[in-house]
Each structure stands twice: as C-alpha cells, then as structure tokens.
Design a protein that fits this description.
It contains no helices and ten strands. The protein has a single domain (8-102), classed as Jelly Rolls (Sandwich). It is mainly beta. The radius of gyration is 13 Å and the shape is globular. The protein has strands at residues 10-14, 18-25, 29-36, 41-45, 50-57, 59-64, 67-72, 75-79, 85-89, 95-102. 0% of the residues lie in helices and 62% in strands. It has a six-stranded antiparallel beta sheet, with no helix packed on it. The two termini are 21 Å apart.
C-alpha cells in the first residue's frame, strides 16, 4: 500500500491561479487534485472518461454541458464522458477539487 501527498503528486498544471497534480493512477481510474485561487478557472474541455468532481474546500461554479451549477465544499458533481465542462473558483478563498476520472 502506498500513499501520496499533494506535494509528491505529478504536476499537471502550475500557473498563477491553478495548481493541479495527479495523485493516483490505475487501470480503472485517475485521481487529480486541483487547487484554484479566487478567480482561477479550468477552461472548457471534454474527456473520454466519466468524471467526478468532489469539492473539498471553497466555492466553485461548474459548467457542465449547457448547465451551470454553484457548488461548495462536500459536494460531488458527476460528468459523463464527452461532455464539455469547466470550473471557476467564485469564492474568496482557495478552492480544492478532487477529480476522479473513471476509465
């Protein structure tokens, strides 16, 4: 059994307002942690996998397809493969999102 901290994760994005690292990968899923500073945004994109967004901390607006959802900590947002999505930190503090990609 292994553990991985955010500090040890594989860097995926590191910009002024976004810090994203892969914490786990297997044949069945990937786990990624995204930290968004206020105003930080993951731009519109789609994936080949179903995705679950779990808001660990903060407040975000998730655009999933044609819908916009306000979500705060301890909220999960599912998104099917092929659907265009984006995340925006609309709060006053850093938001932390656990992303699970199901393969």
């Amino acid at each position: 059994m292994e553990k991985t901290t955010f500090k040890e994760g594989i860097q995926l994005i590191n910009t002024e307002k976004i810090d994203a690292k892969k914490l786990f990968t297997s044949e069945k899923c990937d786990a990624i942690q995204i930290n968004l500073d206020p105003g930080g945004k993951i731009e519109k994109h789609s994936t080949e996998e179903d995705v679950l967004f779990y808001i660990v901390k903060g407040k975000v607006t998730a655009s999933i397809g044609n819908e916009e959802l306000e979500a705060e900590k301890e909220t999960i947002i599912p998104c099917s493969a092929g659907i265009v999505k984006s995340l925006l930190n609309t709060g006053d503090e850093k938001a932390s999102i656990l992303v699970v990609k199901l393969k």
